[in-house]
Input
Amino acid sequence: MTKETLTITDNRTGQTYEVPVAHDTINAMDLRQIKVNEGDFGMMSYDPGFKNTASTKSTITFIDGGKGILRYRGYPIEQLAEKSNFIETAYLTMFGELPTQAQYDEWEHDIRHHTFVHENIKQLMEAFRYDAHPMSMFISTVAALSTYYPEARNIDDPQARMKQVIRLIGKVPTIAAFSYRHTRGLPYVYPNNDLGYTENFLYMLDKMGQTDYEVNAVLARALDVLFMLHIDHEQNCGTATMRVIGSSHSDPYSSMAGAAAALFGPLHGGANEAVLRMLTEIGDVKNVPEFMEGVKNRERLLMGFGHRVYKNFDPRAKIIKNIADEVFEVTGRNPLLDIALELERIALEDDFFVQRNLYPNVDFYSGIIYQAMGFPVAMFPVLFAIPRTVGWLAQWQELLADKTQKIARPRQIFLGEDTRDFVAMADR
Ligand code: SDX
Output
């Protein structure tokens, strides 16, 4: 019978240690017993960027990076994208099971009736400069929501937590639409609660003076699927940030503002914006070979490619590529797609990319669709943040339910100066 343990020999002392293995993982704290001298702090592991460190146990999202698998609560993303909708998949992600009709109706009703924001929030957003980045407006406004719901600080109260979950999922499309209208100098459009989640978002973005404004059903469905694909992605940078801030028992609005700030980075959810700027800069398929030489010479990254977990195709990128055709039927083909396809063709053949397992990720094709739908590039990270609100909150709920979790406080390897005495200015 094999023992589920690891035997470690410390060659500095000749000592051996046996540490338990569970889920193919050891507890980092079991390393602390490994010392040279009794008074030592004990052994740590060093893992910048947490490339090989599990911070939690979770039942929400499963990714197999080698096989390109993504499942929410066990359901393959391909099946959800084909058969479900954002609100239903949001329920699944939050509660762990597909809803009954009654559960779905109640969930959808609650979210639909929490789309309005306080008028002061609208006034706060009106104070931003005309050219404020909409993602910065989104982050600031989500943080400001914490000033309207002080009961959100009762993070031990399940009812209080769920009330904020509903409020945030309901309000983020409104905040996103208001930030878009602000950048366009257009009057904000209030939510129309006769419409479904994604339709209402498109309505708030696009309606002008019409009294009979109709949302395009093909675009609404395409965006709803894109929203589903972005709901959660296990312990990505933004979600890990949500958990780190949440671990101090901060309220969900403040925690989510931090998560959104992490998502904004161009290496993370800001990559969809960076991809479009990259494609626009390349400008023409004939410029692709020279651009790719620059990437191979380490002068820049191929934005929208590569992933910490996927060492194969990001399954979301495959689905998004199929959505592009449906959207272009309505909007007309985005010419930047030709440049994107040529970049992908070269990357899938060229050793530099193949050896590094660099495949298109979720951000590579999404921006081409968003631009074809009329979104300005700066809105792309906001379009990521709307659905990821569900994943952040589901992971936050899981964190608070996990009694083995503690406040996040990593260690360090100190390589600085040893103790030394202060030197007066005259003697420096
Ligand atoms: C998202 O974590 C998630 O799940 C995130 C996300 C989610 O749903 O939450 O999936 C969303 O953030 C998708 C990723 C979007 N980011 C980008 O498209 C930006 C471009 N990609 C890279 O910055 C990079 O691939 C990362 C950040 C995504 C992953 O970086 P890692 O895991 O730290 O990998 P690495 O930097 O160690 O790269 C390994 C090698 C390096 O070369 P060597 O030094 O070993 O020779 O690959 C190279 C890197 O230089 N490399 C790239 C590259 N990505 C990695 N070279 C050129 N272009 C790239 N895009």
About this structure: The chain has 17 helices and five strands. The domain at 73-269+375-401 is CATH 1.10.580.10 (Citrate Synthase; domain 1). The chain has two domains: 73-269+375-401, 284-317+324-372. The radius of gyration is 24 Å.
